[in-house]
């Protein structure tokens, strides 16, 4: 099956054919680095990291993801803090990489910054001006004498082409444009390519006077430099379709008379509690705020459990700090618990948040790594032999068992990660039956240990390959599970030393045949919210 992608430009699913066989150029709009990244940023970059992982199976991919380090928000934040804007942006770019590392998002091949591409941006604007698609207006700023603002002349581009990506109509766009009208512009739809310097702002020299670029021109200039005039894929959140991506297309295609990107991919939004969250809790969480509650792999799994074009519902609940009762939205807004009558504060409620969907994702990731650990333990004791395959053992007439084929079909169908995850879980289910010696439930017959080992080695390879694409591929299974357990203990305020003492006491009681004491220790562990399992390899325990 050939790879098919949903091309936002045509609003339909199409066969993906690279411009150059075996090579793909991909540009994804990066962050504006003036603060820590939020969950919406995690969605974008986990999605495109997974897409790149898949594309690299068969193609050499040049992945470009920029940093916007020159922007109104950056300048405003820097002035508030008395900091140099470029230095502030560099610091937050480093923080972005810390968050991405935690999510397993790899660095892009090229990570250009606006501040280091000013020559390319100025040249691009000059080209548009030469072709009649840009015009100057006298600056309203008095800095360094007379300078100019430069605008893109939208009416000189065919309206049908300008509106193709967004699907909007001119009347709606004009209504929005007139909200902040600039009488110096020829048309309300025209947008800034260059902004003249204002007092105290970072600025660069140009033929138009000292100033800095508008938002949209940066991506046109940087994608051209690193991928060429025309490239394969352009991606980002669907909030960028208009105006950012619409204006990128306008600039690039008017400057060069050629298609900019052949396929446009856009991921959906993050909605908190279906957008019904009380303002007291808030609908904004930085990635960093989630680290006390979940591993990066759990957040990644959660985000990939919804198809990239769909919106993700991010569940958030909070409880009364006094009686621990879960609060309805009305109680949150009133800052009062109807169960016990206690009043609270916004800050206190924020400290009581839970993320049910993320907690379930953590359990699913735990199941994956526990299965890997069980497979490894079994294979350490029993050598595989030539013979059975997963398909021949578990397949039935009319019901083939081919999880890798299912995984490939899912990813080739517009990167359908929920279906890919379902294929991974088919492998996990079979692997756990094999480890437990319960394969008869599916096959009707028992296997020899060496045959099970053969099938488990195939499961292990599949989990490795699938996990490598989905980014669920921590190298050290045991270390990951221990770190995951420690995080969950800390989130619940549980003392690991106390738990380990109870476990030791239970083992000693069982060895002395004091089963009442062993049962009491187990009851204490369960009361703490723990799961305790006795296995041939010893006691396994985790947070329920």
Which regions have little confidence, pLDDT < 50, spanning 5+ residues? none
Report the portion of residues in β strands: 5-15%
Largest pleated sheet:
4 strands, parallel
**Count of folded domains:** 4
Give the termini distance in whole angstroms: 41 Å
Category from helices, strands and their pairing? alpha/beta
User: Percent helix among the residues?
Assistant: 40-55%
Q: State the shape.
A: globular
CATH topology of the largest domain: Rossmann fold
CATH architecture of the largest domain: 3-Layer(aba) Sandwich
Just give the CATH class of the largest domain. Answer: Alpha Beta
Rg, Å, rounded: 28 Å
CATH superfamily of the largest domain: HUPs
Mean pLDDT: 93
Q: How would you portray this structure in words?
A:
- This protein is α/β, with parallel strands linked by helices.
- It has four domains: 4-267, Rossmann fold; 272-358, no CATH class; 366-470, Four Helix Bundle (Hemerythrin (Met), subunit A) (Up-down Bundle), CATH 1.20.120; 494-543, no CATH class.
- The longest helix has 26 residues, at 356-381.
- Strand 13 (530-535) and strand 14 (538-543) form a beta hairpin.
- The chain has helices spanning 39-55, 72-81, 85-103, 118-130, 159-163, 170-177, 215-227, 241-256, 287-290, 296-304, 329-334, 346-350, 356-381, 390-394, 403-412, 417-435, 440-443, 449-470, 477-491, 496-511, 515-527; strands spanning 4-7, 12-15, 23-28, 60-65, 134-138, 148-152, 191-196, 211-213, 231-237, 261-267, 270-272, 312-314, 530-535, 538-543.
- Helix 20 (496-511) packs antiparallel against helix 21.
- The protein has 21 helices and 14 strands.
- Helix content is 47%, strand content 13%.
- The model has no long low-confidence stretch (mean pLDDT 93).
- The strands form five sheets. The chain has a four-stranded parallel sheet with strand order 4-3-9-10, sandwiched between helices.
């Amino acid at each position: 099956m050939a790879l098919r992608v949903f091309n936002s430009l045509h609003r339909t699913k199409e066969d993906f054919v690279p411009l150059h066989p075996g090579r793909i150029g991909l540009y994804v709009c990066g962050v504006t680095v003036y603060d820590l990244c939020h969950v919406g940023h995690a969605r974008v970059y986990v999605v495109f990291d997974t897409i790149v992982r898949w594309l690299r199976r068969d193609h050499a991919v040049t992945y470009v993801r920029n940093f916007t380090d020159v922007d109104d928000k950056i300048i405003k934040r820097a002035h508030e803090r008395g900091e140099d804007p470029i230095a502030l942006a560099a610091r937050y770019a480093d923080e972005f990489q810390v968050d991405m590392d935690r999510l397993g998002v790899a660095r892009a091949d090229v990570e250009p910054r606006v501040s280091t591409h000013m020559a390319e941006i100025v040249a691009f604007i000059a080209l548009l001006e030469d072709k009649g698609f840009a015009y100057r207006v006298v600056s309203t700023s008095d800095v360094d004498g007379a300078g100019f603002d430069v605008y893109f002349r939208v009416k000189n581009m065919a309206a049908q082409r300008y509106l193709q990506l967004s699907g909007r109509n001119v009347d709606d766009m004009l209504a929005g444009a007139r909200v902040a009208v600039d009488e110096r512009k020829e048309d309300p739809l025209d947008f800034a390519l260059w902004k003249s310097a204002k007092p105290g702002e970072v600025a660069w020299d140009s033929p138009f006077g000292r100033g800095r670029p508008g938002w949209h021109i940066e991506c046109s200039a940087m994608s051209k430099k690193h991928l060429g005039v025309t490239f394969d894929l352009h991606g980002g959140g669907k909030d960028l379709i208009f105006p950012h991506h619409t204006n990128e297309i306008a600039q690039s295609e008017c400057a060069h008379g050629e298609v900019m990107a052949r396929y446009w991919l856009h991921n959906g939004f993050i909605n908190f509690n279906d957008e019904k969250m009380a303002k007291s809790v808030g609908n904004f969480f930085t990635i960093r705020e989630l680290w006390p509650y979940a591993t990066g792999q759990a957040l990644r799994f959660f985000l990939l459990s919804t198809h990239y074009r769909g919106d993700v519902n991010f569940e958030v609940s909070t409880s009364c700090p006094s009686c621990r009762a879960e609060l309805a939205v009305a109680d949150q807004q009133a800052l009062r618990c109807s169960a016990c009558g206690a009043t609270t504060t916004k800050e206190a409620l924020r400290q009581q948040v839970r993320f049910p969907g993320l907690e379930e994702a953590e359990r699913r990731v735990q199941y994956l790594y526990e299965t890997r650990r069980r497979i490894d333990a079994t294979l350490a004791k029993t050598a595989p032999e030539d013979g059975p395959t997963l398909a021949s053992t578990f397949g039935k007439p009319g019901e083939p068992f081919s999880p890798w084929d299912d995984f490939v079909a899912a990813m080739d169908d517009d990167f359908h990660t929920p279906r890919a995850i379902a294929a991974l879980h088919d492998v996990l289910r079979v692997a756990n039956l094999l480890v437990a010696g319960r394969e008869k439930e599916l096959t009707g017959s028992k296997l020899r240990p060496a045959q099970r080992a053969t099938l488990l080695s195939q499961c292990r390879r599949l989990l490795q390959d699938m996990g490598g694409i989905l980014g669920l591929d921590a190298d050290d299974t045991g270390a990951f599970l221990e770190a995951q357990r420690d995080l969950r203990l800390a989130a619940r305020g549980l003392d690991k030393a106390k738990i380990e003492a109870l476990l030791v006491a239970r083992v000693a009681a069982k060895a002395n045949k004091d089963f009442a004491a062993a049962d009491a220790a187990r009851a204490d562990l369960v009361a703490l919210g723990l799961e305790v399992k006795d296995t041939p390899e010893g006691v396994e325990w985790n947070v329920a």
